[in-house]
Structures are given as structure tokens and as C-alpha cells.
Design a protein that fits this description.
- Two copies of one chain form a homodimer.
- In chain A, 34% of the residues lie in helices and 23% in strands.
- By secondary structure, chain A is an alpha/beta fold.
- Chain A folds into two domains: 2-99, Ribosomal protein L30/S12 (60s Ribosomal Protein L30, Chain: A), CATH 3.30.1330.30; 106-256, SPOUT methyltransferase, trefoil knot domain (Alpha/beta knot, 3-Layer(aba) Sandwich), CATH 3.40.1280.10.
- Chain A has a six-stranded parallel β-sheet with strand order 8-7-6-10-9-11, with helices on both faces.
- In chain A, helix 6 runs parallel beside helix 7 (152-158) and helix 6 packs parallel to helix 10.
- The interface between A and B is large, with 36 and 36 residues.
Chain lengths: 257, 257
């Protein structure tokens, strides 16, 4: 274990640069904060961890974790240096630099996909990934207008599912839908005014559920281009559902009914 | 319309006191911020609006709204006074003081209820109310450990459903469950390790779904006391679902399958 005591050290500065999307892209990496995220990553993709930073007082507590990080550089740092790297106010004594996975080819992502069109709230995006993982869907396609899946708030809300979910990003929903249709996916829009979801005819095989922006919903061109369009019942006076809630209800029903 | 130009005016100070739970209890009222919340309240319960505050530059824009507030006092205030009352950084020019509804007797709330045990995140609590309204459930029972349903963050997340959902608060989940059982409700716990939810025998009549704290889930005594206990499938590696997501999947399935 190497000691690094200065915030101005280039290794520290490089890790700190991962706080921004630009920095993540330049480095091809993202930052994991705290024991839960680091241990999930070490369990699922240990070879993707480039560097680990741990405070001296926590080195013993995290010894078994650090033992799993065979191929990674491990640095002992003072608390103020970890605070400079970290994206939370009170870091938990451990952080790691993890390689960004390459975007997947859509047709290799699996049979059950979700496409998010400009879902902007980081908490929503992270929760959707966690739910997708739990429901047994395979992956998510995200337009560039979505919250960055490797930003700190999204990562926290995924509760570790970020490492188990296939992710790819696309410029716009329509071009992704062309690829989906060419690869035999049924695209399923969720939109007010669609057919009643619970009266649908069976859906099997390759499916991609389309979820729209929190305020605007799916764009009308996306709804028109979708093979199917469904709405969930709104029995009370609520005008719509939260994007993450709609995605959850649809994914769980498609997987279990 | 009366003009009030000073923050130290007692009417303004009283409205400002609604920012805290203590102030809301003392006044028996809560604050509605912005056009959407105020217009929902005026549509559903106009007689509960005690006072309206509008900035002079927005009085014309909101004229048709103000016309619906027949029984309420209406005050024209400068922007800095509205900012003092309001709980958001940039208020939208209108706010209202609305009477707190009395807590309902559990057996009068309807046939489909939700009981939240210490759900603490205001966004979660608000989203759960919005979903409950959309799914067609009738009301929510909340332990004192839950986020206050009349706090600004919860109100915003309900998107107006606060006015359509029956709410009652209880000291602890177990005492509420005794009342529920005495009134013929089937209590349905959602818990890891429960029976498979999608293989359940039919549930009809009076039902109360139990949802636990974000981190800890339902307490073990609540799970033991529940008539039924179900778990949702976890197919990927996710360990649990967000509380609001679990509530949504269960409510929509119970209402539509």
C-alpha cells in the first residue's frame, strides 16, 4: 500500500476529475464511493478496479475487501484527501476508480430491455436500474438527455445494480428503435391514451419497454413509431405516474403474468 | 384584495410558521406553494383554503384562480414577502394556507389501504400517495416515524394527490393492525422471505398492504402479526426494491389481477 498525502498529487487530481461527465469520459472511468459500492464492484468485476483509496484509520476494517483487489493499485490517504476525491460530504473511508464499461450493441443486451427517453432525475434513473435488475430485465438504453448513469447520484440510487445491468447510450430514441425493430424487438410505449395495459394480448420474446421524460412523457414521434402503446389505469384523480413507478409496474407484470 | 407589505405582519408570520411540523400543528393548517397545488386545492376543497397570497405582478395571471376562492382572504404581497412565507427558493407568485384535514377513523377510510411503517424519505412518501391515488387505493395510515405528509417535499411529490387520499396517522403499526383486524381487513406484509406474491390465493374485500422503512423493511413484529406475508421475485442480484416501487407493484397487481 502506497501513501499519498497531498491533494495536488496527479493521481488524486485524476480521481477528483471523475466528479464531472467530461472527466469520466476523458479517463474512461468513474468513481465508487463507500464500502457498499466498492464491495459490489470487487465481487462482480474486480478486474475493472484500477485504484483503491482508503484512509489509514479504516485500512484494518477494510482489509478483507482490499485483499480481493489483487490487480489494483491501493493508496492510503488522509481524510482530507479522500474528501477531495469523494463526491459525498462525509466519505466512508474508501473509494475506488472503476473502468467505464463499453456501450453494448443493442442486439447483444438480452431479450428484455428498457429504453429511457430523457429521464432526467438521477434518483429516478438509478431506481429504475435497481428495479430492472430485481425484475429480471436485462438492460437499459438511454438517450443522451437522460441523467448520466455514472454520476454519483445515479450510482447511489442503483444500490449496486449498476454492475449487473447492461447499459448503452444512444443519441435519440427513434434511431435506437430502428435498431430494435431490425433485431426483432417489440417496442412497447407507455403513454396516456394507449390501449389498456391489463387487457393486452400476450407479449413474448424480445421486448423493449419505452419510458418517457418525467414532465413531458414520451415524445409523440416515439409513441407513433412504437409497435404497441399501453396505458396503466388511473383510477383516482392523479394525472400520471412517476416514470420509475410506471417502469416498475410494467416490467413486473410483463415478467410475472 | 388586501395589501400586506411587511414580513413582520402577524398574518405573514403565521403563514411562515407553517414551514415546521410544530407550526402546522399549532395552526391546524399547512402551506400550498405554487399554481398547481393551489389550483388542485381550489378544485377539490375550496372551503378549506383560509388565505391566499399572490404577488402584484401575478394577480392578473391568477385572476380566474382567485375568483374560485370565494370564502378565503386574499392578500397582495411583494415578492420578498412571498419568499418569506414560501418553502421554495423561487416561489411562483402564489401560495395558500389550507386547513389540515382531521385524521380519519381507520374503518371509514375505504376498502383498500396502505400502512407505512417509518417510511422516512419525503420523496418516497409523496410518490407513494400519488401512486395510491392512481392505482385506486383509498387511503394511507402512517406511523409517526414517517415523513410528515404535509411537509413541503412530500406535498410536492404527491403532485396534488394529497387532496384526494385519505390519511391517518398512528403511533405504531401494531396498534393500527389491531384496529384493522377488528374491522375485517386482511393485512398483507411485503417482506423478503414471504410467500411468492404472484402465486397467492385471491385477495378480496378489505385489504391493507404494509410497507416498511427504506433501510430496515417492516419490523419483525409487524410481519409476524400480518395475516399474509408476500415477497416479490428478485431475479437479478438486487437485494431489495425501493419502498415506493414495492408499494406500486403490489397495489397495481391487487387492483388489476
Amino acid at each position: 500500500m502506497q501513501e499519498l498525502s497531498s491533494r495536488s498529487n496527479p493521481t488524486i487530481q485524476a480521481a477528483k476529475s471523475l466528479q464531472t461527465a467530461k472527466g469520466r469520459e476523458a479517463m474512461g472511468a468513474f468513481l465508487l464511493d463507500g464500502e457498499h459500492m466498492v464491495s459490489e464492484a470487487l465481487a462482480i468485476c474486480p478486474d475493472k478496479i484500477r485504484q483503491l483509496f482508503v484512509t489509514a484509520d479504516k485500512a484494518e476494517q477494510f482489509a478483507s475487501l482490499l485483499a480481493k483487489a489483487e490487480g489494483s493499485e491501493i493508496f492510503s490517504v488522509p481524510q482530507h484527501v479522500l474528501e477531495a476525491i469523494s463526491q459525498v460530504k462525509t466519505p466512508q473511508g474508501i473509494a475506488a476508480v472503476c473502468e467505464l464499461p463499453p456501450d453494448r450493441a443493442i442486439e447483444e443486451m438480452g431479450d428484455k430491455l428498457l429504453l429511457l427517453e430523457n429521464v432526467q432525475d438521477p434518483g429516478n434513473v438509478g431506481t429504475i436500474m435497481r428495479t430492472l435488475d430485481a425484475a429480471g430485465f436485462d438492460g437499459v438504453i438511454m438517450t443522451r438527455g437522460c441523467a448520466d448513469p455514472y454520476s454519483p447520484k445515479v450510482l447511489r440510487a442503483t444500490m449496486g445494480s449498476i454492475f449487473r445491468v447492461q447499459i448503452t447510450r444512444c443519441e435519440a430514441a427513434l434511431s435506437a428503435m430502428e435498431q430494435l425493430h431490425a433485431s426483432g424487438y417489440d417496442t412497447v410505449a407507455t403513454a396516456l391514451g394507449g390501449e389498456p395495459f391489463y387487457e393486452r394480448t400476450a407479449l413474448a420474446g424480445r421486448i423493449c419497454v419505452l419510458i418517457g421524460n418525467e414532465g413531458a412523457g414520451l415524445s409523440s414521434r416515439v409513441i407513433s413509431a412504437a409497435k404497441r402503446s399501453y396505458s396503466l389505469p388511473m383510477r383516482g384523480g392523479a394525472e400520471s405516474l412517476n416514470a420509475g413507478i410506471a417502469a416498475a409496474v410494467v416490467m413486473y407484470d410483463l415478467m410475472n403474468r
